[in-house]
Amino acid sequence: MKTIQIANEAGLEAAAREFAAQMGDNTVFAFYGDMGAGKTTFINALCRVLGVDPEETASPTFALINEYRSDTTAELIYHFDFYRIEDLDEAIELGVEDYFDSGAVCLIEWPERIAAALPEDTVTVKITVNDDDSRTLTISE
To answer: pLDDT tens digits for 1-10?
Structure first.
């Protein structure tokens, strides 16, 4: 288990760089955290670090899935937000398993709503809001 501290918004990019350096060959990352913990904010910062144009990143809450392409590596990155998903069947109909098997980086918010569809090698990332309003990312494989 690894942890990354984010003291404040100014430390977000450094934390995203540290996270990106630890991604290795993993492709599916499940981000857990309470509403307002900073899942979308962190994922957007991570996408920018991975080479996605900052104007392209946004929360996929209404679209459920956003597709980005890294300007530096041309790699595909999928950002999922399953907060509004009704049930696992809806996710399966969207083809989530094909996305997860594609080899592209998949960054998932509210993964608990589709837990049964997550691959065994999914990396779990828990974002905790600390008493001083800083954040701790706890990463486990």
So the answer is: 899 999 999 9
